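Thought: the user wants the 3D structure for the chain below. I'll pass the sequence to the structure tool as-is, report back what it returns, then summarize two notable features.
Action: structure_tool
Action Input:
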Amino acid sequence: MSNRIINWFKFASPQSFYPLAGKMIPWFWALAVAFGIAGLWISFFVAPTDAQQGEGYRIIFVHVPASWMSMFIYLIMAAWAGLGLALKTRLSGMMAQALAPTGALMALLSLWTGALWGKPMWGTWWVWDARLTSELILFFLYIGFIALQAAIDDPRRADKAGAILALVGVVNIPIIYFSVKWWNTLHQGASVSLTKSPSMAQTMLWGMLIMALAFWMYSIAVALMRVRAIILERESHSDWVKELREVKS
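Observation:
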């Protein structure tokens, strides 16, 4: 058991993780495509029309998974950043940096699809609702993290500054999740809960969960591709990177 743990620890090195990430990327892309096709088919051709919202409700099959992923990616990004801050591991900061753009994309997608859904439901594109506002803050946290790291030339200092911002911003995640319970908001409550049975048809639920898996697989694939690029950039002075570039050239 101890030998297996030691073997896994070797992948904390950028040099060891780089080829492992390269092997995993095609699998996650394949899963993203498979889940995406299945999820879109169920969501738009199998799931029934909502009795109250009509066909317009189908935006939730993109909106809800994007919202979930925007929060989940931030937690993972903050965890990697905090790990790098505590243990001084180089790969941790690289992983946090690689996750941030995808998290920002998910937050933006959540906001835009929410606006498209809100217009016919609420009669307006935007309201300063507690959940909408806290999701907008999440998007700005992602942008702030990306901008802060880009503004500091030294990667170590950039990782440290980004980690502090990411860890402070974690407090916003429970605010987003519980906002519909803590405040009187226009946003509807959660349709899926760990403690209650879902308040939607089974086909709707399956469509949403499969789409969430597609978004998850996509996020992992893109983050792995991005972290490989970051590794090559940051480790450009290393002999193994120079050898790798010579082999490719």
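Final Answer: Structure generated. The chain has one domain: 25-46+60-187+200-235. The CA atoms of residues 84 and 92 lie 5 Å apart.
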